[in-house]
Amino acid sequence: MIRILHIVALVILSLTGMFASGVLLYEHLFASPGHSWQAAACGEGSEGGVSNCEQVMHSRWGKILWMPTAFWGSLYYSALTLWFLFIGRPSFDRRYWHIIPTLGVLMGASASVFFIVIMYAQLQQWCFWCMVSHVAGFLILILTLLLWPRRRTAERERIAAAAPATVRRPARPHPSVRLVLAVSLTVVLTGVCFGQVVVGASVLTKMEMLKAITRVMYEIYQDDLRDRIRTRPDDPVKFAGDDGERLRAVVFSNFTCLHCRQFAESVDGQFSPLFDNHLEVVFKHFPLCSECNPWFPEEGDPDACRAARAAEAARMQGGNDAFWKAHDLLFSRARQRRLRQTDYRELAGELELDPERFVADMESDEVARRIQEDVDLGHALGVTSTPGVFVGNRHVPNVAALEPYFWQAVAQMYEAKARRRNGGADPSAVTAEDAAAPPTASLTARPLDPRPE
Known about the structure:
Elements: H1 2-30, H2 36-42, H3 53-57, E1 63-64, E2 67-68, H4 69-86, H5 99-123, H6 128-146, H7 154-162, H8 177-223, E3 237-238, E4 247-253, H9 258-274, E5 279-285, H10 302-335, H11 344-350, H12 355-362, H13 365-380, E6 388-391, E7 394-396, H14 404-421
Parallel strand pairs: 4-5
Antiparallel strand pairs: 1-2, 3-5, 4-6, 6-7
Helix pairs in contact: 1-4, 1-6, 4-8, 5-6, 8-14, 10-12, 10-13, 11-12
């Protein structure tokens, strides 16, 4: 009877630790406690010594091996629950199997000591559910050590031998290898399945957060209408659709900027198809280097200015197509960290341009003047970082420039305008709730007008 109560206590404590870790995991994934009593236990204080689960979970120790620490706690207590429930106390002749849970709970208790020290000495914040989990772990350690199998005493052997044959039961070795393997496999499969669920929930949560941020950014975009942005007839233009139907995007870019390269790749692969390839991209220079950008307060990277001059030299000699070839080559070299070692005569050869004229154009006053005009225009429009993107004379918030949900919402807005101009149904303008929905209508019926209706 005592042995059964011992096992029951271990299972209950393991379930308690699993419950506490599950509460923390839920709050970590969904950024809120599931019930008011959970929030009351965690507290909302920010002073030292106050229970504050949120601050503890979002510290540098809130994740281990890219997964929430609470996930590992849940998995640890789940494994203990399965072990004690199905194996419990081994027989004396198979006591070596008890080494497995003993080592496990020793490691768990050591981890608890470590995290308690971190909360006390470094974070100066206490997490209620963390402490519930740690206390359960310490109690499990004590009971696991007390569960170690012992040889029968002489008195117990005498009593067992004196029992009637019909009552006496032969002692069977416990656990069998098959049972240990079955429980171990169950623990592994539980961990794999649980991990997939946690990763999936984490991804869905991040997507919902992105959608919420996108809604806010879209509302900012709608309200930020500018005067028509000046462009030159010979500005570099990329357009993948048919002539006559265009929505203009003006992009202030920098060849040493990682996000500018990512934006250029996303326009071709993701954003332009949302507009049925009727998105026209006009390139403007905005190198983040004071050598050619007096509005940039830092010295910056001189390669940004040299790359901008090279792209302009390619346009002067080879026109629009040569510019975009140079654009792709310069970004490719920047990706490979070879921009600084670029031989611009060799680059001109790759572009099938005259190398001597190319280098002379790079150093010419005309190229410097054009870059300066772009930089001044960007400054006047409030560009301070790259890429600076304007679509339909509206400024795209910097944090939304690479966000597909945002571009889907913009595509819907202009599709709705196209439908209204075609005499179709009068759908309301895209709302914040539509920010994550893919576009559904065509933009090919009539030329797009970026001006507000």
